[in-house]
Amino acid sequence: MSGLSWRLVVTRAVICWERLWRTFWPVAAAWGIYLAAGLFDVWTVLPYGLHLAAFLALTGFSGWWIWHGRGALHWPAAHAAARRLERENGLANQPLAVLEDRLSLNAADPVARQLWELHVNRNLAAIKRLRLPLPRPGLVDRDRYGLRMLAAIMLVAAGFAAGPDGPGRLSQFVLPLPHVTAAVPLQIEAWVTAPEYTGAPPLFLAGSAANLLVDDGRTPAAHKVPVNSILSVRTYGDGQAPHIVYRADPAGAAIAEKPEREIDLTAVDRRNFAADLPLQYAGVAELRHGFGQVAQWPFGIIPDTPPEIRFAAEPSVTMQQALDIRFAFADDYGVSAAWAEFTPEGDLSALGDSDPDQSDGALLRLPLSLAAPGQKKGQQQVIEDLTAHPWAGLPVRLRLVARDAAGQTGFSASVPLTLPQRIFENPLARALIEQRRKLILGTGENATVITALDALSLFPDLFIDDLRIYIGLRVARYRLAEMRDQRAAAQDVGELLWELALRLEDGDVSLAADELRSLQKALREALSNGAPDTEIAALMSQLREAINRFFQAMVDQAIEDAQEGMSPPMQNPDAEQLETADLQALLDKIEQLGKAGAREAAQNLLNELQSILENMQMSFGGDQGGQDTAYTQALDELADVMRAQQALQDRTYQQSPSGQQGEGTPAPGGSPSLSEQQKALRGQLDTLMRQLGAAQGEVPKPLERAGKAMEDAAAALGSGERKAALDQQVEAMEQLRDGAEAIARAIAEEQEG
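RESULT FIELD:
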């Protein structure tokens, strides 16, 4: 082929391409966007119907456009290519046409032939320098928005995004025919999630189907998983939904409803499927795809046994008439809750419907605190005051119940016991308790109780020494008369009458004990629930203050009994005795363990502290054969010293360092200074100790330490060191209390002898 001939062929091809591109570029752009969507995997997230509709619409549009543009579907003529080459190279007078001409006139004339050959050679020389034309479709005016460029950019970007998966995606989605596409390897992800309460990590089973079957066809080793675990299967493949067949083995068939279950995986989109299967009995899970099995996982089930709970000791009653329950528990994954159930024995008709705690017939439930939720095994002690309950004094049966996180329950043996009952000695207190019983039993005697309260408060000057008791009686009377809800009024007034009876019986001792139990319970719950250190510290501070109030109430009540000549109760040999320093050391240890994170050890010490406080016995005074002992006389004088020392301590605290009265100087009007008052109290204590030593031969050591603290406090007050004086005064009060307890024990020993 000559140089001109191939140039003409190329030029004709350029002209043909320009015609086709100028006519059919919308079809090419549309198909480019469609293919880009396939490479981007867009069609996997769209419904099959939408994909098919897009394909059919695009095909119809292409056919219609090609039909209307069919005029461009022809090969350009040679003369058209020649004219394009001449224009492209700027040749005038159509030199390419010369090559097609022949000399017809004067063909035999040598001169004419020579001139003609010269003319042809010049044109041939020009043709050798011809440049091929570049395609110029001229679409700027036809595609003003550049849609063809958008399609090209999308197609290139989609190709990079698809990477090596590009051919597979194109073969999968160019023709939207379901399941008649190129094979896509099935990707499998499977794992087992154990119940949260077991604390077991997830068990990952596979990442693809390649390693899920043993080569020789044998079943892989069984995976041991807790009961109620969840088998999760996720697949990615060719769009055909897999399914799971779970076959129970001989051990699981005994408890399975059906020996074989079939579960279809749910479509997430056209190629992703998922299923979650609870594992409740042993068996084999087979994953099937199409007509074959692609994976199998055998499972053995680890059973969840019910929790166990038992009494660690026989239920007992403390010195404060609280019920002491000690129990042991165990569970394979941890006990989430425990409680005690009380069921009355005998006829319950007398109880009415008064028990607000009943939740299942005639049943009283008492929550039992655990060292920590989910604890697997351990021993605990719970001390609860039930003397205010309507069943107090009645025979009941008690059993313990434990529940695990799966909802299973375990029970202890049932034991008989009589709920502790408070015995009131004060006549007015006994009368209030009798009226309270009428209210809480729901016998409809509210009017009778109102009359009784009026009678009991008729002569307050003769029968009621404490103004708070009288006011409380009147509040109870009017509240019972005016509240519309008689049942709520009975409960409300019943609680008030109980508090009044306790105050009449032993002053503030019982109320202080209730406050102490509430704080111990709050601290125990805070330790169990992992409360922050700041909350633990605040509760410990409140507990220390409550213990001090409890001891002070016991001392005040015992001193009051001694001053009134009441015989103290016989000293219980099992009663706890605790020095103030030992108590403070125990409290410090509890707080240190709580801050260090040893919450369970802190709770054990807290239980020990509660047991000690519940079994403490303190009683002062009394007579023996009508004759006062030296200890009784010393106790009376010590009570005066303690009251005076407490008053002096309060004045020291209230006095401002910048006040008008100095610490070591006499007050205006001839009043002695604080230092002089402290020295005078020190002298009273010395006189008391000399008398006690002369009569009994020895003096309690706490009193000697109290005297030394008083002496140091007086010296500090004299030098104006108020803070140091307060510290010594606090120490003096603690030692005086310990001395009072020592004298009380001596009185009890004398009475026993």
